Amino acid sequence: GVVGIGQDITGRIAQEREYSKLIDTANAPIFGVDTEGKVNVWNQCAMRLVGYSTEEVMGHSLVQEFITDDFKTAVQAVLDQALRGDETANFEFPLITKAGARIEVLLNATTRRDEHGNVIGVVGIGQDITGRIAQEREYSKLIDTANAPIFGVDTEGKVNVWNQCAMRLVGYSTEEVMGHSLVQEFITDDFKTAVQAVLDQALRGDETANFEFPLITKAGARIEVLLNATTRRDEHGNVIGVVGIGQ
């Protein structure tokens, strides 16, 4: 004879359906791939954003068919890491829409597991940051062409903004200053402590206006600058550096 041992999975199936519904109607593009990188989740927001229907993407390779050539390797690496259980947050990459446009996406890649804990794929929750990146590029262009010397440093005091006016004033090109310590390499010894204090204050959110200090030009001359030091923040409000507008 035969003995059958059953298990009631009604609750689990109902839970999975609710999970699928939440994903499909979420207000963010969500996609998933299996262990071979083939698309097996594609919600309505992803469909609206990229232009491909669920039927057009299911079973197709996400990386090979929908990622730009310059990002194929990087995106594949993120997926491979997630398949090993090493998840990635805030990874920026471009997707190609059905119309051929390039859109920028900020992605969180999460490992997907079955009820036994086995890895069965990756789920990516995205955010369309195309508009933000365009805005940042416009902001960078305005800074670069401004009629005042503008420089920026990161949280370690390394130069990461150096506009054309600063270049003309001090004589160093962007390539010569990027990644270098502003205070240690371009400020006179008698003002190193004071300028560092202004930067440290701005990194704490305490901005400074009309601070006078000298810069050393490439030719070795000393020029006096009147500075406004402004805290620089990312889209989440986290301090990422300081921007100085000089005169």
TrEMBL record:
Protein name: histidine kinase
EC code: 2.7.13.3
Keyword Nucleotide-binding included in the entry's annotation: no
Domain PAC: 89-141, 209-247
Enzyme class: transferase
PAS domain mapped to chain residues: 15-86, 135-206
Pfam families tied to this protein: PAS (PF00989)
PROSITE patterns noted in UniProt: PAC, PAS
UniProt record, GO biological process: detection of visible light; regulation of DNA-templated transcription
Xref: SMART domains: PAC, PAS
Keyword terms: Kinase, Phosphoprotein, Receptor, Transferase
Reaction catalysed by this enzyme: ATP + protein L-histidine = ADP + protein N-phospho-L-histidine
Organism this protein belongs to: Helicotheca tamesis
GO MF annotations in UniProt: protein histidine kinase activity
Keyword Phosphoprotein appears in the UniProt entry: yes
